[in-house]
Amino acid sequence: MKITKITASTMNVPNGPPVSEYYVSNTYIVARIETDEGLEGLGYTMMVGGFGARSVRAYLEESLIPLMIGEDPRDVGRLWQRMYENDRGIRKKGVPVYAISAIDIGLWDILAKSMDQPVWRLLGAQADKVPVYGSGGFLPYTVDQIVTEAEGFRGLGCRHYKFKLGRENLMENVTRVREVRKALGDDMEILVDANQRWDVATNIRVANQLEDCALYWYEEPVLADNIAQCAEVAQAIATPVATGENEYTRYGFRDLIDAKAAQFLNPDIHRCGGFSEMMKIAHLAAAYDVQIAPHLVPELSIHVLVSIPNAALVEFLAGSPDDLWADPPQIIDGLMAPPDRPGHGMGFSTDAIKRYTE
Ligand SMILES: [Mg+2]
User: Fold this and answer.
1) pLDDT score for 231
2) Could you list the residue range(s) of the whole structural domain that residue 51 is in?
3) Does residue 344 fall inside a structural domain?
4) Is pTM beyond 0.70 here?
5) 92, 113, 270, 295: which is the annotated catalytic residue?
6) 61 secondary structure, DSSP code
7) What pLDDT was estimated at residue 354?
8) Which of 14, 28, 102, 252 is deepest in the core (most CB within 10 A)?
9) Average pLDDT for runs of 10 along the chain of length 358
10) Is 113 known to be catalytic?
C-alpha cells in the first residue's frame, strides 16, 4: 500500500458561550491521506482559539507531506521517526509537533482500517470504558453557573468536574471553590485549573487555603515552560498536581516525571505527537505510577485510555457545535467507550465540512 496524496484543509469551528468569550472559534488543520488501495485516513489537529493554525498548516504542507508520498502508511513507527528527524534545526516543541500529530492520527486510521479493526484493538485494549470528567467553569461564570454546569454533568453520571481558578482577587478564588464544594456535596470530585496564571508562592497560598476541600487535582499552576517551578508547587501542596497539556513528545513528559512535577499528566493527542507518542508517554508514566488524563480530544484520546494500565479520566468540555462529528462517542452513566468501527472511527459531518471549511 502506498500513500498517493495528502490534502490539507482548514476548518474554523465556532465555540458556544461562555467559552466563546475567550475563544471565538477553534481551528482544525485536517490532513486527508489517500492510498493506492482506496483506503483513506483522516488526520487532524486542533488549535484552541486558532492560534498558530496557519503555521501548523504551512509546516504540514511544506515539511511533512512531501516525506509521506509513496510510503506505506502502515509503517507508522518508521514514518513518525522520519517526520521527527527530518530537520535538525527546528526543535520538536509546539508547531511542528501539532503537524506531526495530525499525520500520525491519519496513519493509525489507515493501519487500523487495513486490518478492519478499531485503533484501540491494535493498541492492546484492557478496558472497555473510562470515566469522564465534566470540564468548563470558565472565569466569567458565577458560582451558580458553575454549580449548574456541574449538576448537568452529574446528570450524565459523571463524578468529577473541573473549573477555573484565576480571578484577580485571590480570596475570591478560595471562596468560589468552597461555595462550589458546599453546593455539590462530597460525592462529586472537584478539579481546579489555574491555566499557568500564577507564580509559585501564589499557588501555594491558594492551594493551602483549599486543603479542607479535598480537591482531586490542581492543574497547570505555573508557566508550562518552567518545569522546576511546577515541581516546587507539587512538593509544597497536599493536593495532587496535574499538568502536561502544553508539553510535547516523550522527552517533555520525561522531564516532567523526572522533576516529580505532577501526579497526573495531561497529554493532548493533537500536541504531544499523536497516538504513537501518547502511548509512549503513557507507558513511561506507568512505570512511575503516574496517572494519565488527556487534555481535550476525548474522541481520540479514548482509544489510548482504554489501552493503558494508568488511565485516570477523559475530559469532556461542553461548547463544540453538535453537528461537528458524524457519530461522536457519548457519555453513558458517566463513562465513555471508544468507537467500535474500523480506524479511529471519527469523521466530520458533511454539514460541518461545508459550513466550517475555509
Ligand atoms: Mg487545563
Assistant:
1) 98
2) 3-117+350-356
3) no
4) yes
5) 295
6) I
7) 97
8) 102
9) 98 88 92 98 97 98 98 98 96 98 98 98 96 96 96 98 97 98 97 98 98 97 98 98 98 98 98 98 98 98 98 92 92 97 98 96
10) no
Point out the catalytic residue in the list 113, 160, 162, 164. 164
CA of residue 78 to ligand 1 center, whole Å: 32
Same domain, 198 and 60: no
DSSP symbols for 160-227: EEEEE---SSHHHHHHHHHHHHHHH-TTSEEEEE-TT-S-HHHHHHHHHHTGGG--SEEE--S-TT-H
To the query of whether residue 164 is one of the catalytic residues in this protein, the response is yes
Looking at the domain assignment, is residue 341 inside a domain? no
CATH number of the domain encompassing residue 321 = 3.20.20.120
* Predicted local distance difference test score (pLDDT) of residue 19: 80
What pLDDT sits at residue 89?
A: 94
Place of cell 488524563: 293
Output helix, strand, coil percentages for the chain, rounded to the nearest 5. Answer: 40, 20, 40
Residue 108 in any domain: the answer is yes
pLDDT at 267: 98
How many folded domains does the chain comprise?
A: 2
d(CA 220, CA 280): 22
Instruction: Tell me: do 75 and 133 sit in the same domain.
Output: no
At position 194, the amino acid (one-letter code) is A
Residue 345 lies in a domain: no
Place of cell 479520566: 313
